Amino acid sequence: MRLYDPTSSGPKRTLRRAPPLASLEGKTIGVLENGKLNAAEMLGEVALLFKERHGCTIGAVYSKSNASAPAPKETLVQAAREVDFLITGLGD
Amino acid sequence: MPLDIARVHEVPDDLLAAIDYCYEQGWTDGLPVVPPTVERVHATLVYEGRPAETVVATHPATGLELSIHATAVNAAMAGCLPEYLPVLIAAFEAMNQPDFNFHGSTASTGGSAPMLIVSGPVVDDIGMNGDVNLFGPGNRANATIGRAVRLILRNVFQMIPGISDKSTQGNPGKYSFCIAERARGNPWPLLCEQQGYPQGVSSVTVFAGGGFCNVENHGGNTPEQVLGSVADAMANYGCITLGQSVVVLAPEHMKIVADAGWSRQDAQAFLFAQAKRSVEGMRTVGKYRDSEYAKQHDAKAHALVQEGFVHRGLTPDDILITLGGGDAGGHSCFIPSWSRGRGSIMQHRAIGVCIDCN
Questions:
Q1: Which residues of chain A have a CB within 8 Å of the CB of B58?
Q2: Where are the domains of chain B?
Q3: Residue B190 and residue B320: Cα distance in Å, rounded?
Q4: A15-33 pLDDT tens trace
Q5: pTM for the complete prediction?
Q6: How does pLDDT run across B119-157, given as a tens digit for each residue?
Q7: Which residues of chain A are within 8 Å of residue B5 when distances are taken between CB atoms?
Q8: Is A65 at the interface with chain B, CB within 8 A?
Q9: Chains A, B: CB pairs < 8 Å
């Protein structure tokens, strides 16, 4: 019996992770908040911990208009240009 | 055809062993599947005119793509007859519209299931059920088309429970959530007509549904009484949000509404006006949000929006109402949206034809 594989997707894409930072010390941190209740507050507190513990500079706060949709490409491109790393998470 | 699309597994000619093989590969929703043999998939593909590698939908976060071929493979696995394929393809073309946001609605803790409402002549052509027990069980087309949606989300888009599907409690509709609109005795234009498709063209509407709420009313004899109970269900504290709604009126209830001369638009306006909670009440249960109230009461607010109240949805058009069910029984239903606001907007698509497409 010959079965087709149901998981087949389109042509394979070449996706790779960004190289990890060698150190967090002195880096600029960005925040991507999803617009949910308390998201900006919670992520702001987390960013402060990076500042206290690793001397990070807190950079821009980016926002999404739809919490459950992927961030727009333009937002991610801008963040990649302006900060060294980005944190995000759900606030609810 | 790219090799990845045509990947084949050779297994022994033993049907039960093949079913177990599908389990071992992680291809099922927990129930046994029909092993997707090459022959069955090819027979299914006959019902689509475009090349098998044509992309039907793309996951907005991962870039994973659903081809017509993969749609047919999962349809066969779900138990679909080959002629069901165009409905399934149209459903994913509708879900692929950005405003449906099928990433969010399938990954969220909210436990959404894509609800399909099929309208028009295709319902009889493939033997769908809009009558007794339309939500199931008992009808192959309803059950397997809805099931194929879930298998595609799992197998192609990798929305795996506990990993990328973080639904807190799940939802029985995540096994299958597909109905037909009842045409027999329907006093209102069918959805496919309301949506503006040419005569004879069927449609499928997709809605990120949050569950199923039975609305029982055997004593009401006026539209206000019957729809008043529906509105109360829509406004329950657990469900009320700015999201959209689906209401399936049972024939007994529909007769009361339509015999009084009410149109679909009349019913929508009544439900929108009545499905509301006071700001004070919303505060009592901790669900009041200034931003949501402002969104509903801004300069563009609908004329039926009442000061001091939070309504369900933003306008009467946010409430889809149709007919479904058996002749006997005062049991309608309300399906709340997964989205608490505008995170997912219902979409519709013509089935088996190309309208205004490239």
A1: 10
A2: 1-209+347-358, 211-336
A3: 12
A4: 778 889 999 999 999 999 8
A5: 0.93
A6: 999 999 999 999 999 999 999 999 999 999 999 999 999
A7: 8, 10
A8: no
A9: 109
